[in-house]
Design a protein that fits this description.
about 180 residues; mainly alpha; Rna Polymerase Sigma Factor, Chain: A; Arc Repressor Mutant, subunit A; 2 domains
Length: about 180
């Protein structure tokens, strides 16, 4: 039976048939690759949602099975990347939270203010406009009649200066958090 043509025409019964034929196979494949029931369920669900959304783009030149597993593989890679990024950010937050609790905040804020005050006048102005007042690089460039690239360079140099000043005490993420929560 030509499932691809029927799917492309929007036949819901064909979609249900295809789901019945392939969901367990895809589930088993993802479960074997990841060892995660949650990930397997998530990938299968997202795969069949995408299959339905992209049904008009299915190719009659390739087997439906290959197309389903290609979609599933792409989604699996995306999910694994999201998980990796999420774990990385969680680790950074946990480490910074632990560091923040160990550092005397008033003392750190005073040291931070001193480090910012030691910056060159334009760099200090650009840094404060960006990181404290929340202006975009483009807005700062317009305010100060400089290019956005110059703004970017000032921010980069300011962050390097702060990193150097605080490298033995605390991570840059904690420094920025202190600025934001000031």
């Amino acid at each position: 039976m030509d499932y691809v043509a029927d799917l492309a025409s929007g036949c819901l019964q064909t979609f249900q048939t295809v789901y019945g034929l392939y969901n367990q196979k895809l589930y088993a494949y993802v479960l074997k690759k990841t060892g995660s029931v949650y990930m397997a369920e998530e990938v299968v669900q997202l795969t069949f949602i995408r299959l339905w959304e992209k049904k008009e783009n299915l190719s009659s030149e390739h087997s439906l099975s290959a197309q389903i597993f290609r979609i599933g593989g792409t989604i699996l890679i995306d999910q694994l990347r999201k998980d990796a990024v999420g774990k990385k950010h969680l680790s950074v937050v946990e480490n910074d939270y632990a560091l923040r609790n160990e550092v005397d905040q008033p003392e750190m804020l005073h040291a931070l203010e001193q480090a910012i005050e030691q910056m060159a006048p334009v760099r200090k102005k650009v840094f404060k406009l960006s990181k404290i007042e929340g202006y975009s690089y483009k807005e700062i460039a317009e305010m100060l009649s400089i290019s956005p690239k110059t703004v970017e360079n000032h921010i980069s140099q300011a962050l390097k200066q702060l990193r150097a000043a605080f490298s033995s005490i605390i991570s840059l993420a904690v420094i920025m958090s202190a600025i934001i929560h000031k």
